[in-house]
Amino acid sequence: ANVPDFRYESCSSGGSMKDLFTATLAVSINNDDSANYYSLRTTFYDSSYVIHPTQLQEPCNCDFFNPDVSTFYPVVTTTAPADFDFKGTMLNMGFRSMMLGSPMFGSWTGQTVLEDYYRQYATLYAEKIRPLTRDGDLYHILPRPDGVNFDGVMYADPDTKNEIKGLVLLFKPSEEPGNVVHLTLDGLYADTTYQLTFEDRPVQNFTAKGADLMQNGFDVTIEYVGSELIWIT
User: Which one in 33, 87, 119, 192 has a CA-CA gap of 20 to 30 Å to 161?
Assistant: First the structure.
C-alpha cells in the first residue's frame, strides 16, 4: 500500500501450486515455470477453469519458439514449401501463446531479442486483448492441448462498449490433424449479427448470426502449422 503501482507476483512453486487464497494476495500467479510456449498453453487450459485468466502470468522464453536458435523446443517440422515463412509462423504462435493470460516476454539466453515483436504484441495485448481477458468470459472451445491437434480458447464480452466483442485464439502445432478444424462458439447473443475477422487469413472473413456461430459453427483452414486470431465484432 505504501509503494505506488507495486505488483506482487506469486511464483506459486513454479506454477505447480495455485489456489484461491494465493489469488487474493497476488496480482499475478506464475502459470508454469517451464517457460515453454506449448506447456504454457496446456497448463493455462487447466488453471483457467479456476484462476482468472488475467492473474495467470505466462512467463515465456522466446528461445523455445524461435527455430533459428539451438533451444527451439518442441521441435516442429513442416512439409511447407521453401517460401513459407516458418520462422514468422512460429514466432507468432509463441507470442500468441502468451496472450492467453498475462504475458511476460523474455529470452533466457539472450539468443532471441525481438524488440519489434515485443512492441507489436505488448500493444496488441494492452489495446485489444486485455479488455476481453479482464472483463469477458473464457470458453474452452477445443480439447486440452496435446501438441498434435488444434487447440485454442475463446473470449466473449457481448455487452462491452468496445468494438471487439470476442476473440478466438487458435493454434495448430503439427500437420497431423489436417488443414481444417470445426469451431463452435459460445457466449454471444443469438440474434446479433457478428463480423469475424481473421488476423492472418482475411480470405476467411465472414458474417453470421450468433445463433449460427453457437449452434452450427464454422470451419477454419490453417495449412501446414500455425496460429490465428479471429476477432469478433
Answer: 119
